[in-house]
Description:
The protein is an alpha/beta fold. It has helices at residues 15-24, 32-38, 45-54, 67-75, 78-101, 136-147, 151-159, 164-168, 181-195; strands at 4-9, 28-31, 110-113, 128-133, 173-176.
Amino acid sequence: MRKAIGITGGIATGKSTVTKILQQQGFTIVDADHIARMVVLPQTEGWQKIVNCFGTRILQEDGQLNRPYLGQIVFNNPHYLDQLNQILQPLIRQRLTDLIKKVSDNGVPVFFEIPLLFEQHYQQLLDQIILVYAAPSVQLQRLQTRNHLTLAAAQQRIASQMSLRQKSRWADFIIDNNGDLHYLQKQIDQMLELLI
């Protein structure tokens, strides 16, 4: 049976930690963020559209996108965030859709880490969905620490996403990532018993 499984959550809930554990256990992981970086490499269609929309101010000297600066722009203005998503999401969707369709019927799951899984309606393409959950206070603390953000900036980024409560209604599995690594591993093992 074909098993294309989505992994999602909110910013700084620990999606990458979960996928890293699964990868160490031998599973194939497809990372939508990696695809998002590929579609904006210099001189690609995505890169050109972003430069046309936001101007050369969002470029580094070597022509690469200045991602932190672009992040500041879009997370401070919902209109700009919407414009960026309108450019990127069709390009990302095409690549992800092609990869999901290539998942074989051998029964071994392939995991797709997609931060905007529900927002971009990927659930229709996937067999099952895992939500990585963290309490808002934990999420906020992790995001501030990881991205060196002020409290207001971190809150703004979290608020720009669909709430975890809403996402949890549509998930097949919920992994609680409020505890330590041992607790996380135990939940992943339990989930894999149900999946495989």
